[in-house]
Design brief:
This protein has 12 helices and 36 strands. The chain is α+β, with helices and mostly antiparallel strands. Helix 7 packs parallel to helix 8 and helix 9 packs parallel to helix 10. The radius of gyration is 27 Å and the shape is globular. It starts with a strand and ends with a strand. It binds (2R,3S,4R,5S)-2-(hydroxymethyl)piperidine-3,4,5-triol. The site of (2R,3S,4R,5S)-2-(hydroxymethyl)piperidine-3,4,5-triol has 11 residues, from loops. Belongs to the glycosyl hydrolase. Pfam families: Glyco_hydro_36C (PF16874), Glyco_hydro_36N (PF16875), Melibiase (PF02065). Keywords: Glycosidase, Hydrolase.
Length: 693
Amino acid sequence: MSAPTSSLLIEVVNGALVIRHWGAPILGQNHDIALASRVSIANSSWDEPQLPGLMRESARGFLGRPSLSGHRNGKAWSTKFEVTDFHHQGNHCAVTLRDFHAELEVIVTFDLDAFGVLIQKATVKNIGNSDYVLNEFIHWLPLPREATQNLDFAGRWSNERQPQCRDIQIGTWVRESREGRSGHNFSIADIALTAQTSFQSGSAWATSIAWSGNSHYLVERGFDGQQSIGAGELLLAGEVILKGNESYEAPALFAVYSSQGLDGVSAAFHSHLRAREIHPKRPRPLTLNMWEALYFDHNESKIRELVDVAAEVGVERVVLDDGWFHSRRNDRSGLGDWVVDPAVWPNGLTPVVEYINSKGIEFGLWFEGEMVNPDSDLYRAHPEWILHEGDRTPPLWRHQLVLDLGHEEAYKHVLEQTSSLLAAHNIVYIKWDHNRVLVDAGHLGVAGVRRQTQAIYRLFAELKKRHPGLEIESCASGGARIDLGVIDYVDRFWTSDNNDALERQTIQRWTSQVIPPEMLGTHIGPTHGHQTGRTLELSMRAITALFGHAGIEWNITQATAEERANLATWAKYYKDNRALLHSGKSVRIDYPDEHGYLYGVISADTKKSIFAYVQLTPTVTIHPASLKFAGLDAAANYLVKAVYPAGKPRFMLITPPQWMDGITMSGSALATIGVSAPILAPANAVLIEITKL
Ligand code: DGJ
């Protein structure tokens, strides 16, 4: 199977399904690849070379971690699958493997799309009569030995998706996610690299698991010299027990090979995601989220004042966050009771929604339907509806417990209360939060994370079905549920609770490794950041928020007249340029100066691009490294100039470089010579437009 950027070569040998190659495109006649790949008979080794294939079984001489593990009350513990069916058409391939002794069937499918995204799916079926306990199924792909580095992502609340890289050595590197949501520490991708791979060049082999529950990523190099990258759902003990004829559908693995560095990987993921029928197509509305403006202090007249300023600035959607529902005056009570609180909203939400709509602005509302406070009517009525084990109650986290959505009555409660609110008001958007981890998460005596994950997918799908046009934002204490599983049910992710633009630079840089910017909520926070206390220029906050689904999260009734005017010009700039920002190719330049970032978006026809140069920390040299722009049309001439949609940055110079007022250069000169970088104060940014003449 071949795409312009990659090939996948699969072979059946002695009944085993062998992935011979996943990487650069293979052209021509290649009948002898199997022969070319045969290894020596080594000393102290097998008498015949063994080919364990995709199932990685000990019965086929494999000594690493198998793809499938499980048993039937101690039996059927070791498998030897044989390919019994193989369908290959174009870039789709479906393979059936059976082990009649273990009484199991595995169907694996591979789909390689035009952008080079390989989607690997698998179903494990019990074709026997006794119960089969499935411990795990992991998708694996081979890595060549030039992949010597492994990049993944770690993080915590307010600092998600921080890259970490290491040498691949003999052994297994495992990244587990056991939070019951993908998590702040979830690796949005696991990527193998050569020692030279950068943003713009070199090989990268990337995987991303499409699952929002527990998961694991693995990179394994065996002492035989083979190495692989894998991922799958992390099943809790006894979570999947297949009765006769029952099947387990493993979460899909999305994989990309790129010969054009990490940006090649993100280009493939972005193109794939954008090509989905369900990808949000409407221009992404400029959003005002009221959380950092109001917190729990919901007050209709304050909201009207805020909305007046929002309308003046050009906001298109306003979101009422946490605090509107029954007894929710702080984070200690109310979760579970999804009814408007008359104590704060004596006339209900309708008048405020109508007021917002009268300004031409859409209305959105916050929910956290998977959660319950012990201090709630729901919990008082149904304490048994929480995820728990035995007679234990899991430890509280933000004063809340997790509702067992695998419990049909609990599921209906959340669905019906949410749905009634949506039916009764003009709510086009919901922000759906998930503020705690799942621990000891039992459903009626058995592990309940998988069931819970499936339930939330079902709930989102049902809400969208009942309320056509409804958009959903996936939020989880910021960016703790951003993954390729939930992406098919939502339209936006809340990237991080950290609205500090300096810190957001890195969080957004790496979240967009997989997720296209139009799905990442990026807000202008208050002048003094609420998370870090840092004071940042409006221009820095505005430029940072521009590279995503832009919004504002700040009490702008307190903004000065000058700030409001700047917000209005920035809002117009966002609207004028969002078609480019949300469809173009994201480019991260391999900028040689570690004190700065240079990145941008280039339109598909290379006619227009917008770049940001960000001075993160002070440089050691007087002049930072020149700004060189990759990805433009080398032969074309471009107008290059700095633009200031939200006011000027803080410079640390007497006169800025002359090119900033506008000069003409060819794409090749911009890539090789570039323009000199202005000297900015730390934590400042400048926007650069490059337009074909
Ligand atoms: C965490 C979210 O990430 C915030 O944006 C906000 O919605 C709060 N929860 C509300 O409790």
